[in-house]
Amino acid sequence: MTLEPFLLEILVCPQCRAALTESGSAEQPELSCTGESCGLVYPIRDGIPVLLVDEARRPA
């Protein structure tokens, strides 16, 4: 599942305000922060990005 391009243009990381990019797999889609100091990964559940810092994970 992919997000609409206009949505990706306006979404930012709630931690550092850097842009987000789509990552993950089709079964487990995610949004990754592009900030070098942050790098949090946010889940997408039922097509809705969950942009809560408490729900994010650090990349492996």
TrEMBL record:
Transmembrane segments: none annotated. It comes from the Bacteria. Coiled coil: none annotated. InterPro entries: Trm112-like. HAMAP family: UPF0434 (MF_01187). Belongs to the UPF0434 family. This is UPF0434 protein GCM10009665_76870. It comes from Kitasatospora nipponensis.
